[in-house]
Amino acid sequence: MSPDFNDLAAFLSVARAKGFRDAARISGVSASGLSAAVARLEARLELRLLNRTTRSVTPTEAGQRLIERLTPVLDEMEAAFDVLNAFRGRPAGTLRLNVPASAARIILAPLIPPFLKLYPDIRLEVVVEDSFVDLLAAGCDAGIRYDERLEQDMIAIPIGPRTQRFATAAAPSYMAERGRPLHPRDLLDHACLRGQFAGGAKPSWDFEKDGETIRVDPPAPLLVRPGSSIDLAIGAAVAGVGIIHIFEDMIRPQLDGGLLEPVLEPWWQEFPGPFLYYAGRRHMPAPLRAFVDFVRKGQG
Fold first, then answer.
1. Rounded to an integer, what distance in angstroms lies between the CA atom of residue 86 and that of residue 197?
2. In which element (H, E) is residue 155 found?
3. pLDDT tens digit string along 38-78?
4. pTM score, two decimals?
């Protein structure tokens, strides 16, 4: 008996996501449902396709060979169904985007409402993660990253502001108590609210003025992971706990409202804005094509 198509699709989604929970988040199928589907497939084939540990899920040699053969077949099937969009009055289907937390808040937040209003038959799935990912392996159609993090052999188009800045700021109450830093190195004597990646690394704070670049590693009474916990750091800064160094757009409301005051503004470092990137497929899915056209018109 031939394997069930849904079981094959479940196996591929788990293998791409490298885990049942992440695959469930991306596919919309429960982790237990995916596990049962993979177990059925392995029983039917009488082969183990995935090595499972408490920390990771990786394909066996047989599983890897199956992935290599399945991927182009399923891609062609998706493309075949997508051709039917030409017979509809407007694009339909699912668009999966992989974006860092900063892009979700700064770039996507103002774009999503008008896009979904314009294309009500498109279902948008947004996966927020700051680590480097293989778009296709993660089952995503497109992603947003900055130039130095773009995958090779991808098409990239500008999205959002073309110039951004890192802003450093503190509450008036903090500076009344601790004083105002006048040089980036003064931050070494201040309480600073910093980010920390999942692997434990803390990105340094970089400043630039008149061609001089200074990188500091200040003490931190509070460390947060990128994502929703950024709100915790912003709230702590407003409460006077310490100095924050973050995308300017993420604290612009607090700066405009006087809850935070700029610190070392002449040293704020500028950098190029992000890009929407995607694979140069022979057939671009209709939802992705609609989003690319929407972004290009907005950048014009």
1. 44
2. strand 154-158
3. 999 888 888 899 988 877 788 899 989 888 888 777 777 76
4. 0.68
